[in-house]
Specification:
mainly beta; 261 residues; Lipoprotein; 13-stranded antiparallel β-sheet; elongated; signal; Outer Surface Protein A, domain 3; two-stranded antiparallel ribbon
């Protein structure tokens, strides 16, 4: 029986389980008068000599995605069969030994539970995570994914085409009037709202700023935010042993100004 070590702790330290979530930051782009970033500890999976998954911590990073290479669990801008349901999922690469804490069902779906929460993976590779501290995440059949982080009160949703929205300190799921956060649309337009004002990006690459008491005016393109919601990082990309299916991988969100393929 395999044992998953360094098991999950609340997301404020390191959201893990079979997966670890890095929540989106509310970091403002360079050149703005305000910026805030939430640092999180993430976790990755290494493969032990016996082929079983064993968790090992990553370096603490900002919870927003940087401009560097995308996470291994992420893909290019295009949605692939590894991001959405529809084709039979391959099964575990870890042999017949089943990871401790995992329950595998006849159809290949499986559950994993520990002191931090529970992960449910369906036979089609879709999954949902529920943390005991209230954190939640899920990947849907159409390739969209969502997460909610209690620490920071942030809700993020990434659509199949890569467009996305993140809302902070609100029960709303969309960036309606009065809400703070950011959204990027499939046509490359974007909007970021914080307590200081609003930044807009047009499809042709122009950037505008609007603040209370001021008219909207064009600003430098360097004001374009570079962060995106960080895709959930799979802890066990090869499943948990036995006939367990390999979970689907979250697609990469579009960056501000990027157009969907």
């Amino acid at each position: 029986m395999n044992t998953l070590r360094h098991l999950p702790v609340p997301i404020s330290a390191a959201l893990a389980m079979i997966l670890a979530l890095s929540a989106c930051s509310s970091a403002s782009s360079s050149g703005k008068s305000s910026s805030s970033e939430t640092s999180q500890s993430n976790a990755s999976v290494s493969t032990a000599d016996n082929g079983s998954p064993s968790a090992s911590p990553l370096t603490t990073t900002s919870s927003s995605a940087s401009t560097s290479s995308p996470s291994p669990s992420a893909t290019s801008k295009a949605l692939t069969d590894d991001n959405k349901a529809g084709k039979p999922r391959p099964t575990s690469t870890y042999g017949e030994s089943i990871s401790e804490g995992a329950t595998i069902h006849e159809d290949g779906s499986w559950d994993y539970t520990n002191s931090s929460g529970t992960l449910h993976v369906k036979a089609d590779g879709t999954w949902n995570w529920e943390g005991n501290n209230g954190d939640k995440a899920n990947l849907n059949a159409d390739g969209s994914w969502e997460n909610f982080e209690v620490h920071g009160n942030e809700r993020s949703r990434v659509n199949p085409d890569g467009s996305w929205v993140q809302v902070r300190d609100s029960t709303e799921r969309d960036l309606i009037k009065g809400a703070q956060g950011m959204e990027v649309k499939a046509d490359g337009t974007w909007r970021e709202v914080d307590s200081y004002g609003t930044y807009y990006g047009t499809a042709d690459g122009k950037v505008y700023q609007e603040r209370p008491g001021q008219e909207k005016h064009e600003v430098s393109k360097e004001s374009t935010p570079t962060w995106t919601p960080t895709p959930p990082v799979l802890y066990a990309p090869g499943g948990v042993g036995g006939n367990s299916v390999i979970p689907l991988k979250p697609r990469t969100p579009l960056k501000a100004g990027e157009k969907a393929e």
